[in-house]
């Protein structure tokens, strides 16, 4: 199957992520599983990696400015919101599903690290850089792609920080 044929078989949201990856000059390929992987543990089980190798994309809302903030963290970590607030210069709150979809163009459970509807302040968990490869959501609960974690900052436009 050619790359064009594979891209045509992707769902619309996964195809948008594949296009965004290609437009940024990266070779990564999005694929869709037969089952949804809404949690890091589900994704790790399906692709055969550790939970830490899953790059979770979590969206927050800045308290004062209302800006969307994306934190791409290791599936093994819990985001320390105080650390993110320190980086951002204002507090953050977990974003509701409507805000997430409005800002990213994707539903919770499939938020990718790129290809969003609007620019997001983005932070990349430094712990992800310890792995040889990681897996990220690709716009749909069934869609993923594997990548070198050192490409995450350029791919997402994010800054590497300690988030846990």
Give the topology.
Elements: H1 3-9, H2 12-23, E1 31-32, H3 40-47, E2 54-62, E3 68-74, H4 81-88, E4 92-94, H5 97-104, E5 121-125, E6 134-137, E7 143-147, H6 152-156, E8 159-161
Parallel strand pairs: 2-6, 3-5, 5-8
Antiparallel strand pairs: 1-7, 2-3, 2-4, 6-7
- What overall geometry do the principal axes of the alpha carbons give? globular
Output the structural class: alpha/beta
The overall pLDDT average reads: 94
Q: What fraction of the residues are assigned to beta strands by DSSP?
A: 15-25%
Please compute the radius of gyration using only Cα atoms. 15 Å
**Given the structure, what is the number of helices?**
6
The main pleated sheet reads as:
8 strands, mixed
Distance from N terminus to C terminus (CA atoms, Å) equals: 41 Å
Record field, number of beta strands: 8
The secondary-structure element order is HHEHEEHEHEEEHE
Weakly predicted, low-confidence segments: 1-7
- Specify the helix fraction band: 25-40%
How would you describe the overall organization of this protein?
The chain is an alpha/beta fold and 164 residues long. The protein contains 6 helices and 8 strands, in the order ααβαββαβαβββαβ. It has helices spanning 3-9, 12-23, 40-47, 81-88, 97-104, 152-156, and strands at residues 31-32, 54-62, 68-74, 92-94, 121-125, 134-137, 143-147, 159-161. Strand 2 and strand 3 form a beta hairpin. The radius of gyration is 15 Å and the shape is globular. 40% of the residues are buried.
């Amino acid at each position: 199957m050619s790359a064009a044929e594979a891209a045509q078989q992707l769902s619309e949201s996964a195809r948008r992520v594949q296009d965004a990856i290609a437009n940024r000059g990266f070779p990564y390929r999005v694929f869709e599983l037969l089952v949804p992987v809404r949690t890091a543990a589900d994704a790790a089980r399906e692709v055969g990696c550790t939970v830490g190798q899953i790059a979770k994309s979590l969206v927050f809302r800045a308290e004062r400015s209302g800006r969307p903030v994306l934190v791409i963290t290791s599936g093994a970590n819990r985001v320390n919101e105080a650390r993110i607030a320190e980086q951002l210069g204002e507090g953050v709150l977990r974003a509701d599903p409507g805000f997430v979809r409005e800002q990213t163009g994707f539903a919770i459970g499939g938020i990718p690290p790129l290809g969003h509807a609007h620019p997001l302040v983005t932070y990349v968990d430094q712990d992800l850089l310890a792995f040889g490869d990681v897996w990220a959501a690709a716009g749909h609960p069934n869609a993923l792609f594997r990548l070198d974690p050192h490409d995450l900052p350029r791919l997402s436009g994010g800054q590497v920080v300690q988030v846990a």
